[in-house]
Design a protein that fits this description.
- The structure holds two protein chains of two kinds.
- By secondary structure, chain A is of the alpha/beta class.
- Chain A has eight helices and eight strands.
- Chain A has a six-stranded mixed beta sheet with strand order 3-2-1-4-6-5, with helices on both faces.
- The radius of gyration of chain A is 17 Å and the shape is globular.
- In chain A, 52% of the residues are buried.
- Chain B is 26% helix and 27% strand.
- In chain B, the strands form six sheets. A six-stranded mixed beta sheet of chain B has the order 2-3-1-4-5-6, with helices on both faces.
- In chain B, helix 5 links the parallel strand 4 and strand 5.
- Classes of the chains: A alpha/beta, B alpha/beta.
- At the A-B interface, helix 1, helix 2, helix 5 and helix 7 of A face strand 2, helix 4, strand 7, strand 8 and strand 22 of B.
């Protein structure tokens, strides 16, 4: 088994545990490279189908390429796709800095979707290597009734034994690719021939390393116009993956505040 | 444990092959773990651009000198408290290895996080402050590494600058910790004097520690071995689920050890059922050819339909795990309430869960003191050895024989409260079923159906004592027999007089009682009979287990006669005795009966005659496909 085989097998194990131990789960599909790999892994875990919905919490501010991708592959992959809107910006905590506030709409949209469907588990494509607060996550991460994350009181996880009993009305975040890195995602995308949104590939000396909302995501300088070139770039670069995400740079703890409140 | 060590060989994006080693860093709070990690990242060129500058800015803003540990303690709360709260995983490279560094917090309050980190590690770095020397927490961490089976430990004596790089001071600490670890059966791979803040001994042997001839920290990390290969052990495939998304019935799970290939003879434990692997299924290409080894998440199909459930273990006949309801385990306890004899728990061994009772606390140790306390209870953050009895049989291995299946965790109120290693299993109840090959009946189910004009079924009557279950069961038995069917009564009390006479009335024994009733009833149902079970079966979970065993043959009838009517009837005098306190563990007084939520039928015998109730049951059996239509005509003629 090579490194990618190991990652794949571990993620499949997590998917199957989530499906076996929770009553009503959904996969959060943000249309980006990570959640596309997740859908692929789910289909591997369940032999060709994803036996739960794909939830797109839509800010309405994604790139047109992303919406095209969603509509095309939602059908081609035979997903039970649920697109849920987010509330307007006025409904969001005004003390947050602008980009974080814009991103926080997604947290509110997520809460609305949770209330609407009664999911007890949400599968999310976060990775430890993306960002420091994500590095602290559990594979099965309990959320409070308000969707909040209590970083000081996380249950222990031993040896792939996960806590899967959220309190009544609360839910779990399940992180099947927590242990992957950005390079792993690209190497696997290439190996499995998983479709990607072209915005990730360089055009005119720029490409997106991480795709979010149009208003708060910027491309980085790059000449990598294929996955192979991206992998070489990642070997050499010291620019962090989320460099193009505005909200990460507003204040020291903006991202942490968002995540404690329930952001991904 | 004797296992051949070959490096795991992940290919890296640049095409080279480097082993990956997972290392946990542990030690007393403030002994400098985060500083060492920060320094290691810097020395190995693993920091992203701008990170150093950012840290300098953060430090300056707080009016503090530069602090390496800020690199990891990225959370606001951590910066405020100056401690590391949770496990963080960081990657970097030495000359020959990819290292995944698991930073574990040292503060006593957060020991559970340390366990979470250490349980995934191939090796460990134990850090000690040269000034403070070996502390309780140091000893405790050493003990925990031992407990979790981490055998490779590099010891780092930090802050040597505070003791003027004294070789004598280093030797004292080195001797003390080596003796402690040796006492636990762990030989340190190195003991290294360093100053993490200044960099001495981390990547370079500086003049200040010129007297030290051993490896640097980076060199010591370079020498740790990757995880042991599990393929050489016997096959263990714990079943996570059975999927029937299409016409395939796929048994899915991860191969924890050994390997398998289509055509293998396998045994499903703990039941001991034998089958052959027909195919190994996959996606997008299926079936897959070739041998599948440890670590793979797979799906298999079998050459015959067997009842398999989540938590069963697929093994090879001849090297199957032991089946047991009793085991000894060494555990680490994390819960606020101490673990005591008689406690009821939920034990998870892989995907298998079972309710359990603590039969005895054989040892309770404070790993800080390493002294045995009284054997009454295991306190929070203490370690102990316990003897537990399980309500369901499970298949497991002692940890020394299989580190993957010889582990368990304990849940309290839905949350992991402890975990540990299986020391031994008491498999005396029955031989390892290497020779058990179920013999199929000479008759096909449809041959019997044609004669009896019904399919096999398990009709399960549950309800309070004296609710009328046995009376109804007998009436139904008579009715079905008169109509030419083959009903068989399995009364709970009757079976307790024989088959189940070894069982009492504890929760665990009650579960086992129900399991056996369900197994016998299911066997009868598979052979075309209608097994009518009349049993209080108060626990919803036990009845759910019975339904899983009987599967589509199961029909649950809740005899929902009001409690006061039952007590008024009291044909066996049980209520009277219980009220007088002469009958312990009697269901009916108190609230221990869990009524079904989705029974196929609910009957209140205080509002129905026995004949009317039997009519209702008969009707339900017709509409749910147990009784055939012809029976309606036949019944009308009688």
């Amino acid at each position: 088994m090579d490194h990618l085989d190991q990652l794949e097998a571990q993620s499949i194990y997590i998917f199957r545990e989530a499906f076996a131990r929770l009553k009503k789960i959904a996969l959060l599909w943000s249309l980006g490279k990570d959640s596309n790999v997740m859908i692929w892994l789910a289909r591997k875990a369940f032999f060709g189908r994803m036996p739960f919905p794909a939830l797109h919490v839509d800010t309405g501010k994604k790139f047109p390429e992303m919406y095209r991708f969603r509509d095309h592959y939602g059908k081609e992959w035979d997903l039970d796709l649920r697109v849920e809107p987010c509330p307007p910006i006025d409904a969001v905590d005004p003390t947050l800095p602008p980009a974080a506030r814009s991103a926080a709409r997604k947290t509110e949209g997520l809460k609305m979707a949770l209330a609407k469907y009664g999911f007890d588990g949400l599968i999310a494509g976060i990775r430890r290597d993306e960002e420091a607060t994500r590095a602290k996550e559990r594979v099965f991460s309990p959320r409070g009734l308000e969707g909040n994350w209590d970083v000081r009181d996380q249950p222990p996880e031993f040896w792939d034994h996960f806590n899967a009993s959220p309190p009544q009305g609360a839910h779990l975040r399940i992180h099947p690719i927590l242990h992957w890195t950005e390079a792993d995602i690209w190497a696997y995308t290439k190996r499995e021939n998983i479709p990607i949104i072209p915005l990730y590939l360089a055009k005119d000396g720029k490409r997106y390393r991480s795709l979010g909302d149009q208003d708060i995501t910027n491309p980085v300088n790059s000449t990598a116009s294929s996955i192979d070139e991206i992998l070489v770039e990642l070997e050499q670069t010291k620019v962090p993956e989320r460099a193009g995400r505005a909200l990460d740079h507003e204040t020291e703890d903006a991202f942490e505040r968002l995540r404690v409140a329930g952001y991904l | 444990m004797n296992m051949i060590v070959t490096p795991a060989s992940p290919a890296t994006p640049n095409g080279t092959t480097r082993p990956q080693v997972r290392i946990v860093i542990v030690g007393h709070v403030d002994h400098g773990k985060s500083t060492l990690v920060g320094r290691l990242l810097h020395e190995t060129g693993s920091l992203p651009d701008g990170k150093l500058e950012m840290l300098k800015a953060v430090s300056a803003r707080r009016g503090m000198p530069f602090e390496w540990s800020f690199l990891l303690d990225a959370l606001q709360t951590e910066r405020d408290q100056g401690i590391t709260i949770d496990t963080t995983q960081i990657r970097f490279r030495t000359n020959s290895r990819d290292i995944v560094l698991i930073d574990a917090p040292g503060h006593a309050e957060f020991l559970r996080n340390m366990i979470t980190g250490a349980s995934q590690a191939d090796g460990a770095v134990l850090i000690i402050d040269a000034l403070e020397g070996v502390r309780d927490q140091t000893r405790r961490h050493g003990y925990l590494l031992h407990l979790l089976g981490v055998k490779q430990v590099a010891v780092v004596v930090n802050k040597m600058d505070r003791v003027d790089f004294s070789a004598d001071r280093f030797k004292d600490i080195s001797d003390e910790i080596s003796a402690h670890l040796n006492g636990l059966g762990v030989t340190p791979t190195a003991v290294i004097p360093i100053s993490a803040r200044d960099g001495d001994g981390v990547a370079e042997r500086t003049d200040r520690i010129g007297w030290y001839k051993g490896p640097t920290v980076v060199e010591a990390l370079d020498r740790l071995e990757p995880a042991r290969p599990l393929e050489a052990l016997a096959l263990r495939l714990p079943v996570q689920a059975i999927y029937k998304f299409d016409d395939r019935r796929i048994v899915a799970g991860r191969i924890e050890s050994g390997s398998l290939i289509a055509g293998d003879e396998i045994v499903i434990m703990p039941a001991g059922k034998i089958a052959k692997i027909k195919t190994v299924e996959s996606w997008p290409v299926t079936p897959v050819a070739g041998r599948q080894g440890a670590g793979r998440s797979v799906g298999i199909t079998l050459d015959r339909e067997l009842f398999i459930e989540r938590g069963d273990i697929v093994a090879h006949a001849g090297t199957a795990p032991r089946e047991t309801r009793r085991l000894r385990a060494r555990i680490f306890w994390l819960h606020d309430k101490p673990l005591a004899k008689g406690d009821q728990l939920l034990v998870r061994c892989g995907p298998k869960e079972s309710r359990a009772t603590v039969v005895a606390i054989e040892k309770a140790v404070d790993p800080g003191e390493l002294s045995s306390s009284e054997n009454k209870a295991i306190g929070r953050n203490h370690v102990g050895e316990i003897d537990i009895s399980l309500s369901n049989p499970i298949a497991t291995d002692p940890y020394t024989e299989n580190p993957r299946t010889g582990r368990l965790v304990i849940e309290v109120s839905g949350r992991i409260a402890g975990g540990g290693l299986v020391l031994s299993v008491d498999a005396g109840q029955r031989a390892v079923p290497v020779d058990i090959v179920p013999v199929e009946s000479a008759l096909r189910p449809d041959e019997r159906s044609a004669r009896y004009r019904h399919n096999g079924a398990v009709v399960w009557l549950t309800g309070l004592p004296a609710s009328g279950k046995s009376t109804l069961a007998k009436a139904l038995e008579r009715r079905l027999f008169t109509n030419g069917g083959s009903p068989i009564l399995l009364d709970g009390d009757t079976l307790r007089a024989g088959l189940n006479s070894d069982l009492g009335f504890s929760a665990a024994d009650r579960s086992e009682n129900i399991r056996r009733l369900a197994e016998v009833a299911t066997h009868l149902a598979r052979n075309g009979h209608i097994a009518i079970v009349a049993a209080v079966s108060p626990a919803r979970e036990d009845r759910a287990a019975a339904r899983r065993i009987a599967d589509t043959a199961f029909r649950e009838i809740h005899v929902a006669t009001p409690a006061e009517v039952c007590e008024d009837r009291d044909p066996k005098g049980h209520y009277k005795k219980a009220r007088a306190g002469a009958l312990a563990s009697f269901t009916g007084i108190g609230n221990d009966y869990e009524a079904p939520q989705a029974a196929e039928l609910v009957i209140d015998t205080s509002k129905r005659t026995v004949a009317e109730a039997a009519d209702e049951i008969e009707q339900m059996l017709k509409t749910s496909g147990v009784l055939f239509d012809e029976l309606v005509d036949l019944a009308a003629n009688i």
